[in-house]
Amino acid sequence: MFHLCKPHNTTMASSLHQNPTFLKPQPSLTPKHATTRRNYIPVRCGRPRSQRGPLIKGRFLSIEAIQAIQTLKRINRINPPNQTQLLSNTLTRLIKSDLVATLHELLRQQHCTLALRVFSAVRSEYGADLSLYAEMVQALDKCNMSEDVDRLIEEIEMEGGIRCDEVQRKGILNLIKAVVCAQRRESTVRIYEMMKRSGWGSSVEPDEYVVRVLSNGLKGLGEEELALHIQNEYDRFFKEKFDMFRI
């Protein structure tokens, strides 16, 4: 006779029901500190780049120039009886580069009254080209000191006028633009007269761009007849020059 045996899977099933914890997930054996997540908050130092002020290229002041500017402002604020002498003593101690740097910084800060004193020192000690005069005119116009613009042009005339040559071409152009922008009609006419006395348009070949800026500026200031005269002179000069080469 054969004896029937119960299958082993029945015993295994009953064992699973008796030990339900066998089916529960077992805790990880990984160390506790390895599973901990840390949140890092980024910290930015300084202001964002979009809020930073623009860099000013090429503006370097020596200690002497900075001290001179501070002294000039203090003297101007206190206004002592010997103010002129104190200002002169401060400026005469500066070398040319520091003196010019002081002038440019005062113009940038629109301290035009002090800048005029410094400009006078620069002009008397080292002379001033027309481009520097043009910078002064622009600053004085911003400070609503139009009469001082006219005085500067008068000083150019008293000191010998304008020399028309290739070296002064850029300075003449800058000065004309500055005076026209300042709406100084008489000073613009005076510049043209000084140029004529220097031989501009006769012995000195007129520059086409200078002619256009000058004539358009005079036209805008109400000197239409003079503007037309300048343009006609320019055309006649080059017509005669062309005829001479053709012969």
Automatic annotation (TrEMBL):
GO molecular function, one term: RNA binding
Residue ranges crossing the lipid bilayer per the database entry: none
PANTHER family per UniProt: PPR CONTAINING PLANT-LIKE PROTEIN (PTHR47594), PROTEIN THYLAKOID ASSEMBLY 8, CHLOROPLASTIC (PTHR47594:SF3)
Annotated spans, Disordered: 1-33
Protein name: Protein THYLAKOID ASSEMBLY 8, chloroplastic
Composition skew (Polar residues), residue ranges: 8-21
GO biological process, one term: chloroplast organization
Species in which this protein is naturally found: Cicer arietinum (Chickpea)
